[in-house]
Every structure is written in C-alpha cells, then in structure tokens.
Amino acid sequence: MNQVKQTKRTTIYDLAGLVGTSASAVSAVLNGNWKKRRISSQLAEKIIRIAEEQGYALNMQASLLRREKSHIIGMIVPKYDNRYFGSIVETFEDMARARGLFPIITCTRRDPQLEVEAARTMLSYQVECLIATGATDPDRITEMCAAAGVRSLNLDLPGALAPSVISDNFAGARELTRRILRNSEQRLGKMEPLLFIGGRGSDHNTAERIRGFREAHADLGVAVHEENILACGYAPEKAEKALDTRALGGNALPKGMFVNSTISLEGVMRWIRRSGHLDDRSLVLGCFDWDPFVTLLGNGIEMVRQDVPGMLNKVFELIESGANKPVVIQVPPLIPEAQEGLKASGAEPVISTVSS
C-alpha cells in the first residue's frame, strides 16, 4: 500500500537553526517583541524572510515588520443599533477603503473597560490611526495611542487631548426646539414648555442639546422648569420608566417633547401607546436623530439628521493634514423640511442646514 507522507511542520527551533540564532530570538520577532529584546532590525528581517520561505504562519505583528505602514485604521463605536452609528460605520468603511486603508471596527457598548480593551487590541495590530467614536473617556484612549506612537481622533464626542469632530449639538437642538414649539402652538393654539427626555446629562452632546433646548424657549419667551428635563439615559426602557415615574408623581405631562435619540424615541412611543396618558392627535414630538421610518409613526415628528459624511470628511482631512492639536470642529446638522405629508406624497424630504 502506498502511504502518504505528512509534511513536517516548521517550528521556531527549525527557524532558529536556519537563521543561526536562538529560538527565543525567533519567538520574540514573530511575536512582535523584538525591539524590547534589542534585536537588530536586520536580524528581525532575516527571521521573517526565512519564516515566510518555510511557510511558517506568521503573527500579524511580525508580518507588519516588512512594511513601513500597516495601512490599517481602527474605529470604536458605542452602538450598532441605530441608523446614526450604523451610517458612521458604513461611511467610514467606504472612505477608508477609497484611500487604500483597511478599516477595523468594533462596538464597545458604552463600556469604558471594553473601550480600553478594544484600543489595546487595535494597537497590537499596529493601526496607523484610531478613531474613538462616542467614547466615554476619549482622553484615556488618546493617552494609550500616544504612548504607542499612534495618532488618534475623536468623533461624535470631544476630548481634550486630540482633534475632535462633532455635530453642532447646540445649534441643532435650538432649531429643533423652536420647530417643536411652533408646531405645538399651531396644533394646540398656544405655546407651552416642552419636555426634554433621553441622554446623559454628564456627556457633552446631551449637555449642549439641553443648552440649545433652554435657549430656544428663552428666544420665544417660554419659561421651562428643571423638572421638564429628564436626562435619564439612552436606553428605551429608561425613557419609558422616566415617563412612568413622572406620571405617577402626579405631574402633568407636556403635550410637546424633545426626544434625544431614536433609541429613546422607541421608549417614548412604547409608553405613549401603553399608558394612554396623551392623545396622539395633540401630541407634538421632535427627535435629535434621524430615521426614515419615524415618518410612519404619524404626528409629523420633526427630526435632526447629523451630517455623517460631512463629519467623516473632516476626520480624514485631519488625518491627511497631519494635524494633531486638540481642536473641536463642529459640523452643522441637517433638518428635513416638510415632515407633514411625506407619507402621502412619497416625496423625499428637503434638507436644510442648521446654522448657529
């Protein structure tokens, strides 16, 4: 019988013999730790070349030694479950590939520990740049990147140590609030203070939206009280619980609401349908987020659409220019016009840019 002879798998000891060095030196090079061992770049290149010739499965870090640049760009995002962050991911991938870069993206669920783990792993793969999107502690990620000699930028939420690109949350919120108030006046015959719901008061974006919310009320001469601001978090169940708590406390619920994201809007709509506290025909809603399916909910819901392509264009401009000063670039958001009647006409909304 003919026997098939198995090909012997190359080991680091085989490579050490072929190179004329120690197995520990080969291991250090293949694991990317050759610089710490003070191994010369010439020896490292020789080990990698022979390893490749022998068909040895190289560690990613080791294979990168043969290139001046990795051409890998990383991004962390807090969520995949809304159209805004989904659009950021898709647009980022397209723009990165168009520039000859390979994008690596991971979701960190607004968990600071997961953000650190994700940044550490991406740095081990020698990303050329790391984009921290909506990070809870962007400065910590910047410090990690700086220690590894890697550039970093912030998107959506700003940091103090690296360039940041964000929406103009204040101007967008002020314009959205004005529109909700005017819609409320047209529908109810009077202008009453709105309820702000969703988001975290401790983060920059929510704080700026609350500031814009207050400013719009002041612009139109409407007093808004502290109990009308429910920065209860982004999760749908948190918005639903906050409305339950307010209703059970005996406080009258405003007929107009500024909802801080489509994630929070899910909880608001669930509460409205379940509780029966508000008449849909008199309820006026606005949402600082955008999803075309929101028009199917009725009520002529006003929306703010963050300019994702505009923001990512600014990110890549910063990367390509080499800028690393901790500036904050604010990109005006967009508001679709003529929300009412879109369902009936099937027409696309006209988009207007919000300006400060």
TrEMBL record:
Q: What is this protein called?
A: LacI family fructose operon transcriptional repressor
Any idea where the HTH lacI-type domain is? 10-67
Claim: Transcription regulation is one of the keywords in the record: yes
Q: What Gene3D superfamilies would the database entry show? A: 3.40.50.2300, lambda repressor-like DNA-binding domains (1.10.260.40)
Q: Which residues cross the membrane?
A: 12-34
> What are the protein's UniProt keywords?
DNA-binding, Membrane, Repressor, Transcription, Transcription regulation, Transmembrane, Transmembrane helix
Q: Which domain of life is it from?
A: Bacteria
| Cross-referenced CDD domains | PBP1_FruR (cd06274)
Kindly give the InterPro entries that the UniProt entry links to this protein. Answer: HTH_LacI, Lambda_DNA-bd_dom_sf, Peripla_BP/Lac1_sug-bd_dom, Peripla_BP_I
